[in-house]
Amino acid sequence: MSDYQDILVSEPDAGVMTITLNRPAARNALCNNLLKELADCLDASINDERIAAVIITGGEKVFAAGADIKEMADLDAVGVLNDIRPTYWRRIAQYPKPIIAAVNGFALGGGCELMMHCDIVIAGDNAQFGQPEINLGIIPGAGGTQRLLRTVGKSMAMQLVLSGEFISAAQARDFGLVSEVTIPEMSYPRALTLAKSIARKPPIAIRLAKESLLKAYETTLETGLNLERKAFTLLAATDDRNEGIAAFMEKRRPAFKGK
User: Fold this and answer.
1) Catalytic residue list contains 222
2) Which of 107, 113, 124, 144 is catalytic?
3) Quick one: which of 36, 69, 187, 194 could link to 102 by a disulfide (CB 3.0–4.6 Å)?
4) Which of 88, 126, 131, 95 shows the shortest CA–CA distance to 112?
């Protein structure tokens, strides 16, 4: 993989690429360059057939403690208006393959928003989540107010955004913000096991399933059901669908080829 300054990228392992946020001295604060490298890395992997799923992690101590406040402090209103960061966030959000976050320690502010850009979240029991931007006189600016409300509901989203308080991994699981909680040492191994399992599934079906699920955030139930049905119908034309049914009938493991 290409060399990066603020992220570490693994070679694909059984269909899984791991991206590790790599600014330990800054508790993985999301500076412009880190977000650019993350978006660039994801974009470069879209057409890489060796990669079926991605893990984003910050290691065992911290996921990302927020945005880079030093960079933010240098921007006036015009600078914020012209900020390139929203284009990086958009590219991350539009990534078509599954992304699993393995989260330990702080996932705050932009770190919590990055975690919410991922499709599945495995958290160590030392993880803490929050949107403390209000303490700086600002609000979340990378989707925090929108994704948080859609995930945890109005009352808890209001509490987190307006108070700046943190919640634990166990609370985050109870509110649907994360799917599983493990000991910190197991968050990445569990994410890797899950990612490898997903990577063995039919790629076209995985892509359309992710797209259909994400559309539920943005549209009415009726429109979402229509989109789901169209995706379901499209899959009937794939070789993988025929292989999956044949393997089930013949009681053998399917050999999916992404066609």
Assistant:
1) no
2) 113
3) 187
4) 131
